[in-house]
Amino acid sequence: MSDTARILVVDDHPNIVDMLATVLKFHGFAVSTAGTVAEALHAADRDRPDLVILDVMLPDGDGFEVCRRLRADGHPVGIVFLTARDTRHDTVAGLTYGGDDYVTKPFAVDELIARVRAVLRRTAVSFRPDPPEAMLRYGDVELDENTMLVRRGGCPVELSPTEFKLLRYLLLNPERVLSRSQILDAVWSYDFGGGSKVVDTYIGYLRRKLEALGGPLIMTHRGFGYALRTSDADIG
């Protein structure tokens, strides 16, 4: 596998695109660019990037739509929103639609590079050494960190990078009640004020995908958090 990450920069401001492309190339990344929703989706299919730096406001739509389309099409790509829209509602929306991080303009280039590297570490197998035993199991669920494949009862489960990271954290802590703040810190790796809603949303996504192939697996401990348990009822 190549150790050069492929990054797609999507922004309709040429000066920002040129600056980011120059900085990212200096740091050793392979870079492609786009300025519209249509160009972004075409470039994602053509180049199969490892990560997308994605503006929200684009001439023919918004970055949220790009994110939704990439996730719906099963692209295993990290997504970092980079936008002037800085309300909590926008941040929650970006993470809820499947973004892995949300950076507001104006931004510090060194911080953006650090966040890009953090997302790549969480989402790309090619940027970490293969462990000697990379299979995590609980009940009839298997997660293979080498191939990024998840199965339940032998059937594949298609997960976004964030859903994969969430399931991995639960599998590393089976039957342990994990608070929303613990999950937020482990999966998103930074302190986000609207985190509770985002955690609940992604738990819901993961539940639906896992329970389509079997019984309840992620239990709600009301007032405390969530736990991976083979039980047929929530604990309140």
From TrEMBL:
Keywords assigned by UniProt, alphabetized: DNA-binding, Phosphoprotein, Transcription, Transcription regulation, Two-component regulatory system
Which terms in the Gene Ontology molecular function aspect does this entry carry?
phosphorelay response regulator activity; transcription cis-regulatory region binding
Q: Which PANTHER family match?
A: REGULATOR OF RPOS (PTHR48111), TRANSCRIPTIONAL REGULATORY PROTEIN TCRX-RELATED (PTHR48111:SF28)
Q: Does the keyword Transcription regulation apply?
A: yes
The protein's name in its UniProt record: DNA-binding response regulator
PROSITE patterns in the record, alphabetically? OMPR_PHOB, RESPONSE_REGULATORY
Q: Boundaries of each OmpR/PhoB-type domain copy?
A: 133-230
Residues the record lists as 4-aspartylphosphate modifications: 55
The record's Gene Ontology biological-process terms are: regulation of DNA-templated transcription
SMART domains membership: REC, Trans_reg_C
Gene Ontology cellular component terms for the protein in this record: cytosol; protein-DNA complex
Any idea where the Response regulatory domain is?
A: 6-120
Please name one Pfam family that this protein belongs to.
Response_reg
Q: According to the lineage, what is the superkingdom?
A: Bacteria
Q: DNA-binding region spans which residues?
A: 133-230
